[in-house]
Amino acid sequence: MYRFLLSRQWVILTLVAVLLIPTMIKLGFWQMHRYEERTARNDLVARALEASPAPVESLTAPGKKITTRERYRTVTAKGRFDTDREVVVRRRTDSDDNIGYHVLTPFVLNDGKVLLVNRGWIPADGPSQTAFPKVPEPPRGELTLTGRLMPDETTEASGIKDLEGLPDRQIMLINSEQQAERLDARVLGGYVVLKTPEPKNDTPEPIGKPGNENAALNFAYAIQWWLFAAAVPVGWWFLVRREKRDREAAEDVEPTQPEPVTV
């Protein structure tokens, strides 16, 4: 009755179905793993953003690496901006994906240590990419700022190449160790994305809060792959039953007898 399953066509079809089932199940588990990772990251970011502000030196120090639990924490610092040693970070985009610069300004604390502060984004609309752009000045004198703590940027983590031979006062990565050498100062590990004081006329353009990753999409993909895996044997059996019915119908049809020829 089912001897047609031994034909080459059906053997190949069956093998494909057998291979598809575990592959789709594994893809479902992979998407579920991505869902759990993204959910954990979203929870971690939410807790960091909701935490009470802490003095910056309670979370970082010269040479310290910022951990995932410290990332995005709101910190406070008291000191003054040092615009004379300010630099810009090349090839950075704003909320509309326009290319420009991030403004990185050293902030000298009352104890002499330096905190790197990313003051925001400015457009690259100058006459030349080699000239230092016009940068709005921050507030003068001693002040207290707040910002989100971030880890040092590296090529491995960001994918941004740390190019050499750049124009004066332009860099590719925000890295406290590199800036400590340039400034010849004790620079706190990581850097801060400025929240307050807010810039006048929103220039430099403030950097927005980190968005949530769409973990629900990965969950939906996992369910989808598992439904596909369940549908494969069902579809295979449906095709087998249809093939069986078609063969039985063909066998039930009697061959037509030719009409006699009259001479």
User: What share of the residues lie within helices?
Assistant: 25-40%
Largest sheet features: 5 strands, mixed, barrel
Low-confidence stretches: none
**What's the count of strands?**
8
Q: What is the SS-derived class?
A: alpha/beta
**Given the C-alpha coordinates, what overall shape results?**
elongated
Task: Give the DSSP E fraction (strand runs of 2 or more residues).
Answer: 15-25%
Strand order of the largest sheet: 2-4-5-8-6
Q: What is the ordering of alpha helices and beta strands? A: HEEEEEEHEHEH
The pLDDT mean sits at: 90
Helix count from the secondary structure assignment? 4
Distance N to C terminus:
45 Å
Radius of gyration, in angstroms, nearest whole number: 32 Å
Q: What would you say this structure looks like, in words?
A:
- By secondary structure, this protein is of the alpha/beta class.
- It has 4 helices and 8 strands.
- It has helices at 8-50, 155-158, 176-183, 215-252, and strands at residues 54-55, 74-81, 87-93, 99-109, 114-123, 143-150, 170-171, 191-196.
- It has a 5-stranded mixed β-barrel with strand order 2-4-5-8-6.
- A hairpin with a 4-residue loop joins strand 4 and strand 5.
- Helix 1 packs antiparallel against helix 4 (215-252).
- The longest helix has 43 residues, at 8-50.
- The radius of gyration is 32 Å and the shape is elongated.
- The relative contact order is 0.18.
- The model has no long low-confidence stretch (mean pLDDT 90).
